[in-house]
Amino acid sequence: MATKPRNNQRSAFVRPMIPKFAVVGHPNKGKSSIVSTLAEDSSVAISNLPGTTTKARSFPLRIDGRVIYELVDTPGFQRPQQVLAWLQAHTDNASGRADAVKAFVDTQRKDPKFHDECELLKPLIDGAGILYVVDGSKPFGHEYETEMEILRWTGQPRMALINLIGDDDHIEQWRRALDQYFSLVRVFDALSADNEARLSLLRSFGEIYEPWSVQINEAIVQMENAFRRRRTLAAQETANLIHFALTAKQVAPFRDGQDKQALQSVLEQKLRDILRASEAKFQRDLAAIYHHTDVQIQGLDVDALTLDIFSQQSETLFGLNKLQLAVSGALSGGAAGTGIDVMVGGTSLLMGATIGALVGGVSAVLGGQKLGKTKLLGQTLAERSLSVGPIRNPNLPWVLLGRAVLLFSLVSERNHARRDAIKIKSATMTNAAGKIPEQTRRDLDRYFAKLRDDPGRADVTKLSAWINVIFESASREKFE
Amino acid sequence: MHWLESDSATEWQEKLTRDRKTQYTPNKEGRRSPLDQVMQWWEAVQPGTDGPSAGERVDNLFFWSSVLTVLIGVIVGASVAGAVLYYDGSSPINVFWAFLLLVGLPLLTLVLSLFLPWSRRGGALSTLNTTQVVQSMLSTFSRWRENDILRVLEAFDAHLRWRLAANSQLFGLAFSCAALVVLITKVTLSDLAFAWGSSLDVNSEIVSRATVVLSAPWSSLVPQAVPDLELIETSRYFRLSDIRNEGLARSLTRWWPFLAMSVFVYGVMIRAGMFALAAFQAKRCLRNEFLAHPQVVALVARLNMPAIVSDSNETEARQTSPELATTRQFAGIERPSLLVIWQQAAVPDEFANVSCLTLNGVIDLDEIKAKIMAAIDGAGPVVISTKSWEPPLLEFHDALRALREMCGAATPVIVLPVDPHGKTASEAEKAVWQQSLATINDPHLFVQ
Question: What percentage of chain A exceeds 90 in pLDDT?
């Protein structure tokens, strides 16, 4: 019976100073998914077809250029019994086992029959620790014992990861087998692991080989900081989007005799298009902050995040309802006083078109017509401009914020092993902004009002801080 | 700032990569000030631009307006001083008027200007917001109506208000300096007689007390600039009286130091101090508003975010997936010539009573062939039961090759992936087997 190894077992292979772990195992057990999750790399090829990974590929974790630890994705065992037979034929005692493994790689590397085994054993010969991956949703089979025996022969520090690909549970059966070969056995669902699960797994890495624990701990601290910073960045980008949306204007020259309504419509459309494009860009940026470059989001009953931000449906899903707006005071003040459509949920942007002033405050005294006939330095002072914006619809910032919160909660914890589209249900997010605590809503509403009236006084870092807190709560809520 | 706002259209990863390439030099204390970081970043990434930016245009406008302000202040100050200090010898200069126009009036405008920097947009004094007034004036001209100009005026409202406040102090400073120069020049090059007069019942002691109070800032430093009681008494003037006495005329010139020091202290020094304060506030507000601008806040965060990269430097060597193997089915498996149980797979229900050969992997191909040869019974198809959830390894391909050698090239070989209970595999699992075994390119190999 194979004995459980000790952590400080001497090895024939020189272990590198920088922690290095080779992810090994049977094909199709989620090795590449685990690497993709831990390395936050969506480009790692993941497929149901066995043998997708054909070459050992290194994923060093670098922080400001310095490598903290390294993961190596490897091909799966293809001919384990023949390999073990070879090894057993080339050594006759335990002390020579590691050398036998090295000899195997040295002599068989050119044989295409053992290409995959050489690729997966090479990092171990270079001193890497072993992360052996199995599928805990399928029964244990005796064929795995051959692989585990080969790995044991390397003498390298090792731990087993029980991945969960299917719905069945054979974890305990696996534990009983794996405990005999590995000092550490952990369950890790590569597809659903959140940030905390990843950090927990990293902590386990530090237990495999004690000299590596310092750097692993440093990696954990850096990753925790990185998660916080990303959330801060996401909050800042959201704040910037809202800031822009509430201060954006469109200005065009307006001449006597020109159709004001037509020009106003053109400018309004232009402003809407600019804001839509800005929000689309923001969504891409938010995904990119979390290293998701090609996230597809599908609504099961409505495509929530592709709804027009100015639509009634968006307001219903993401904005505040009338009662909440009233409580927040958004229906008082400037919005109600404009005399323009204040219907909450309407498509009106409540922008109001203002004719640009003539020469300073003087025009208000003298009246436009009088100055219209005056010339100054050859220029007619009757040149005016039509300015549209900023948008005063009180629900617009809430719609933007609600959509941002939804997107954040979907991408911030989504791990990179998943290749499917994110599917969301509209029922889980109706009145999303209404879930924000009332005091925070009031603070935000005051801020939005200040932002519209005097952008220079609105401190975007405060808005960013509030949004950061909202995001922190949102990350604990699941919309999928 | 305009460039930063348009840079918001750049994709995130591209911005991050570009910004991280910039090297930063900490300050003398070894710290990174956000402003230094941003300015060093700007030096590194500054694109070539066609013409001045919106911010530069506004800055230039304010600069030249301050130059114009100084010029106007000098002209007005010199003109007022020239008029107030006009003396043709017929009657002395009324020192009250001179003081009022050269000191009092500028002080009054100073007090009135103090609230201007505080007239924020949207605040109680918003109608007096100086940048909005400037914006309204500028909007007369089409080249100043652009969106980026408006955004600069809004984003740096506090800075521009203080700058306008500084300009107003510049006007007062220029006025007072010009007035002082005119006074000194006239005093130097001609004789000026000063007197004071009023229809009010004001005695010399009251005037003396007032001048003592007004002279307090310089009384210890320049005592001769403090009018004494004798001068005050002798310089009271009634236009109907005659003061052609030479001694008296000489003494009436002694008011000029008081007037000069008043203009200097209450005009030049106070205005200079207010200008310095306004300029300092303008600079402080510029810094604060700049660093508080959303795009700058985002930039500083990107610059200070540690670069955590964990993707591979190597490219994936992707294996091309072959066309799905034949999905054709072998019609009706009759009594097989051989049932192989691969790696302890379950026995399919329909073969429960069929004897089978168990193969647990391949070590020695010859040994496998021998076992197969011994187990084959008849000319029927060969059926292999496998674990559906375990994809075929190359080891299985080796076994298939050995089997093909032993049973003949045309013998149907049917691979039956089954679940742990011997039931047929799912379509997805079957597809994995079909794809993998397609690489063997055996027309008599079936997966079902």
Answer: 29
